[in-house]
């Protein structure tokens, strides 16, 4: 079977992510491994958003809430394990942390999705952002977990196959998780479920006429997307060992959306490309001499405008000559 240009692009990007960061670490430059770990975790969150934004046409401005809830699902049990209280969750076991992160975010996605998906267009954007901000201010108000100052995770999650205190093993887990996320989204998109989801994006009335419950399909996709994003949040909390409400602020949701649009919505590798460019440019521009480093977001805004106006398929479409579906 002949591999398409998009397939080759996916393979090249993933091979580079698999090889280069460990090589930098082994050559005495651990900073680049840390940068790549953060990049890969955010790529997982962007891939989850792409499922509903790229393939489902649902522009969520509250996806950072899932990242934050996933991170707190790791931080709160670790906090009680060290300082006592709430014995039911006071543990470092990954058998609790990961299912808790996925379960809490899936439940939150289900409850909010039941309401959000009753709306469309700008109303959907605003209500997803409103729910995210509600969670943001709820976490700010809980002083036991640091409130606005955040919470330090003194001990990382304990897993059977990975020691998350070792940078290479942490990166290996994150990279393998990215591969699983990409494979899962690709499998969903190419299934009957995914075809209905994409059909509802283009013409929901026709899909409803054909007998499909588009609301149920979109709600299911929204829950899957939220759970995947919550898993990314659990990884992010373990990586940074510090969590705060700022992780779920609305501008963090905007950054995830930026990654998807920049890389190419409705493409497999697009969110990963967007995350790579976003993290690399963020690091490079913020390191510029003052006062240029303060206003590093300005070039990002201009880049997004150019991408939307002239590169409709994002970077993936530009590099392969194919536009967004």
TrEMBL record:
Lineage: superkingdom: Bacteria
UniProt-listed PANTHER family: ABC TRANSPORTER ATP-BINDING PROTEIN, HIGH-AFFINITY BRANCHED-CHAIN AMINO ACID TRANSPORT SYSTEM PERMEASE
Name of the protein in question: Branched-chain amino acid ABC transporter permease
Membrane topology category: Multi-pass membrane protein
InterPro entries, per the entry: ABC_transp_permease, LivM-like
Keywords assigned by UniProt, alphabetized: Cell membrane, Membrane, Transmembrane, Transmembrane helix
Main location group: membrane
Subcellular location as annotated: Cell membrane
TM region(s), chain numbering: 38-58, 65-83, 95-115, 122-139, 168-189, 256-281, 293-319
């Amino acid at each position: 079977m002949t591999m398409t240009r998009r397939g080759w692009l996916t393979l090249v990007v993933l091979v580079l992510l698999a090889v280069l960061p460990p090589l930098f670490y082994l050559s005495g430059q651990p900073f680049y491994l840390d940068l790549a770990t953060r990049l890969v975790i955010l790529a997982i969150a962007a891939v989850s958003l792409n499922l509903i934004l790229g393939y489902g046409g649902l522009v969520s401005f509250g996806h950072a809430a899932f990242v934050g809830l996933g991170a707190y699902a790791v931080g709160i049990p670790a906090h009680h394990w060290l300082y006592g209280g709430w014995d039911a969750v006071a543990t470092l076991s990954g058998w609790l942390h990961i299912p808790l992160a996925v379960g809490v975010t899936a439940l939150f996605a289900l409850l909010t999705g039941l309401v959000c998906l009753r709306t469309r267009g700008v109303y959907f954007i605003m209500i997803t952002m409103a729910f995210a901000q509600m969670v943001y201010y709820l976490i700010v108000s809980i002083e036991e977990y640091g409130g606005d100052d955040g919470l330090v995770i003194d001990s990382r999650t304990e897993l059977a196959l990975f020691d998350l205190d070792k940078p290479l093993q942490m990166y290996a887990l994150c990279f393998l998780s990215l591969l699983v996320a990409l494979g899962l989204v690709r499998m969903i998109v190419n299934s009957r479920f995914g075809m209905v989801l994409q059909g509802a994006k283009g013409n929901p009335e026709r899909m409803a006429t054909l007998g499909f419950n588009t609301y149920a399909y979109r709600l299911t996709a929204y829950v899957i997307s939220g759970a995947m994003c919550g898993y990314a949040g659990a990884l992010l909390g373990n990586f940074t060992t510090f969590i705060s409400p700022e992780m779920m602020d609305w501008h963090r949701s905007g950054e995830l959306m930026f990654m998807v649009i920049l890389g190419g919505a409705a493409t497999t590798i697009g969110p990963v490309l967007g995350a790579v460019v976003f993290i690399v440019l963020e690091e490079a521009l913020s390191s510029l001499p003052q006062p240029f480093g303060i206003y590093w977001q300005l070039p990002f805004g201009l880049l997004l405008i150019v991408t939307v106006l002239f590169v409709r398929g994002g970077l993936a479409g530009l590099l392969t000559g194919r536009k967004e579906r």
